[in-house]
Amino acid sequence: MNASRGTGTLRRWRSVPAQAHDISPSRPAAADAPPAAYPGRRRVSFVSAGALSLARIVRAVAGGIALLIALAILLRVLNANPGSGAVKAIHDTANVFARPFSGMFKLHGVRLSFAVNWGIGLIVYLIAGSLIAGTVSRMAASARVRRG
Known about the structure:
This protein is mainly alpha-helical. Helix content is about 55%, strand content about 0%.
């Protein structure tokens, strides 16, 4: 039989006998008092929880776009068959996001120029997504502090 069966995420409060050093005349023993609802956790309002979820979504979308661009760069540098449906779909989708960065630098070699230009786009998406998500998170934290 599994010893941890039934414990789940909610744990029952058990009465623990007070230790000798916990008992003092000025402070009675708190052995029979239930613990705080969630000690060490902050209360989060629905607004700040929604903003934190939005920040996570922004980070995930920016990371997904960066991953897509990185995959397109890898496929292009490794000379994957452009006639393949999967390669074409990845490249066309990544091209939507990386098009503003195409042609920034003209280097020797088409693949190198492609990798550098789209690599800059990849970095820009990661930084922009992180900055936007951080700003949303800080706004949620400041709203939580103001509300108490």
